[in-house]
Design brief:
The chain is α/β, with parallel strands linked by helices. About 35% of the residues lie in helices and about 20% in strands. The chain has two domains: about 5-170, P-loop containing nucleotide triphosphate hydrolases (Rossmann fold); about 190-295, GMP Synthetase, Chain A, domain 3. The longest helix has 18 residues, at about 250-265. The radius of gyration is 20 Å and the shape is globular. The structure holds guanosine-5'-triphosphate and magnesium ion.
């Protein structure tokens, strides 16, 4: 049978709902989601395969002006995923639609990537009235050239099927990039680190979550007994270390318990998780640290 396949990066402002959209399309929690902006740091592949169709979605970090080195690395993740794509999905939070902001995102991706198809996905339509949806569709179609405008609610899984059908219509002919049963190209280790980071984002307030890097020092699968996972929770300053640990170690204990449960759910088997808090001064601006660690778990798409 003739096959169709393509690379489809999902880009957009922080908090627009890109990761929620990926999870909703795949009906699996591949990419972590939180209420905080700048949740996603790496590009994350989510592979949809059905019959003769394969779509390699790539979730990306929210687009912003890099203020520190980590954000420069994050921005590069977006560029890399866009270069070799077939259709770019630009996700907009419709409840925050603003023509000027849209124009600057659009400008970048319509000029540099002329040969790509550009879809505009208006997300979070559950938060606005129908008139607002129609108004935004009108505004975008009158002022910009995009190939498709599709309103969805990634959270409520509304109209996501329609998006999928439309993507399929545009897919070029070509063989599969991955085996049919593969859902992602990241290794288990990556997800384990991300699950711990998601729990940090949810449990701690303010700047702590953004200063955390999770390193998996050991991941031993054991035939008999639980898998053993040792992870470092790396922060930038001693004061953050103290906050993370909490009085009498109560906070880190809670983080460990919650993370263990989510990891067990994800892996489908019991694990023994040990967390160690470490300080690496100002790691978010540390080129050497970032080169060595960012993308260490191989989030490359091919
Ligand atoms: N009401 C509503 N909320 C949504 C929808 N989609 C996502 N959200 C919420 O928006 C917040 C951000 O969602 P994410 O999927 O993490 O957003 P993102 O674009 O991946 O964010 P970054 O990774 O930080 O760039 C979360 O609290 C989601 O639950 C939607 O369709 N409707
Ligand atoms: Mg995200």
């Amino acid at each position: 049978m003739q096959k169709f396949s393509g690379f489809v990066p999902i880009i957009g402002a922080p908090n627009a709902g890109k990761s929620t959209l990926l999870n909703s399309i795949l009906e699996q929690n591949i990419s972590i989601v939180t209420a905080k902006p700048q949740t996603t740091r790496n590009r994350i592949t989510g592979i949809y395969t059905k019959d003769n169709i394969q779509i390699v979605f790539v979730d990306t970090p929210g687009i912003l002006d890099p203020k520190y080195k980590l954000q420069q690395f994050m921005s590069r993740e977006i560029e890399t995923s866009v270069i070799e794509s077939d259709i770019i999905i630009l996700v907009i939070d419709i409840s925050k639609y603003d023509r000027e902001n849209f124009a600057s995102l659009y400008g970048k991706y319509s000029k540099e990537y002329k040969e790509h198809k550009l879809f505009c996905v208006l997300n979070k339509i559950d938060l606005v009235r129908k008139e607002q949806v129609l108004m935004v569709i009108k505004d975008i179609s009158e002022n910009f050239r995009v190939d498709e405008i599709i309103p969805v609610s990634a959270f409520k899984k509304f109209n996501v099927d329609e998006l999928l059908k439309t993507i399929i219509k545009y897919l070029p002919e070509g063989g599969f990039y991955f085996d049919s049963d593969v859902v992602t190209s990241q290794p288990e280790k990556f997800f384990v680190a991300e699950i711990i980071r998601q729990n940090v984002l949810r449990q701690y307030k303010d700047e702590i979550p953004f200063s955390v890097y999770i390193d998996i020092d050991e991941f031993k699968e054991r035939e008999s007994g639980k898998d053993y996972i040792r992870a470092s929770v790396i922060v930038e300053r001693d004061t953050q270390k103290a906050i993370l640990i909490g009085e009498s170690g109560l906070k880190i204990k809670k983080l460990g318990e919650h993370s263990r449960k989510s990891i067990e759910e994800f892996l489908g088997r019991p694990v023994f998780l040990e967390l160690f808090v470490k300080v690496r001064k100002d790691w978010k601006n540390d080129d050497e640290f970032l080169k060595k660690n960012f993308n260490k778990f191989g989030t490359s798409v091919t």
